[in-house]
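Lab notes, practical 5.
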Amino acid sequence: MIFRILEDQYAEKSKLSKAADRRFMELALTLGRRGQGRTWPNPAVGAVVVRDGVIVGRGWTQPGGRPHAEPVALGHAGAAARGATLYVTLEPCSHVGKSPPCADAIIAAGIARVVSAIEDPNPEVAGQGHARLRAAGITVDIGLGAAEAAHDHAGHFRRIRDGRPHIILKLAVSSDDKIGAAGRKPIAITGAAARSRVHLLRAQCDAVLVGIGTVQADDPLLTCRLPGMEARSPVRVVLDRALRISGTSRLVHSARETPLWVMTSEVSEASGAMKLGASGAQVIRVATPSAPPELDLGAVLHALAEKGITRLLVEGGARVASSFVAEGLADEVWLLRGPEPIGTDGIAALDALPLTAITQSPDYRVRASESLHQDTLTIYERA
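Output from the prediction step:
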């Protein structure tokens, strides 16, 4: 609701060129999404420089988080930036980090007006970027595209405000709400189009997480295997309290090519950790309650946020998915549904929880849905 209010406030301030502003902000949002999964720990921002109705510069946050979107766009614009309007999906930074403040670059370029989608909650910015621009005589309009920007930057916001990543839970279920056959026998639930969609989602996330049960049963690789996008594979994260992951697994074998982080208990055996480390995996120990057999999800997520992860894709299995839903940690749920049933002896999608804990819960609403040939995708988000 707060983001819609911001957009209403923007509309009152600028009624003359709303259609053009909306078009250029939509482009900035689209550009920003190009960086998703590649810019952590920084947000994936998009920026467009427009002079006399013509785009003269555009940019998005580059891999590794630098350079930021604004200096990239200003560099493309060159001298044409003087007197132009800059559209940006997040408040320009105002502090000195590993690069100079973007607000200073905007001022130096001679930008006359900045249209900013939303304020940055980072305490080192938090309105100071906008204030610095106004102090330099630049017109600043805030709120256009705020709702879209809030969704695109949800990982950054969540990490700053809650100390954890934004969590996307992916479930591929049969027509009778199962995620696997009895005995965990391999079975294809969805088709090629749905699988390609999942690989694209992996590329748009910083990390992908599964439990040790999934690793032992399926021996997954968890990379992005879309042609030309292999380098955009996320960090692979395994919940493995007792370090049961096999050194012969595909995850461990590929740890030097694609990062593998194994989350384990403080008291798991040191020898197992040393073997994994020698294979190129990184072992991360987190505090673990003595009673439950699983790791504490709060501690796991805090550790991932401390390492810079902002967008986390959770791919299973049933017990892991159920835990995220039960603890109110699934911010989005991507529910892929195939057309065929598995049967009553199949593995339930959420272990002991019914799938209606998502599909009929007042905590979730449908954000989008689409058909993927014979399959369907429904995206739920927290209301």
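Observations recorded by the TA: The mean pLDDT is 93. The CA atoms of residues 85 and 113 lie 5 Å apart.
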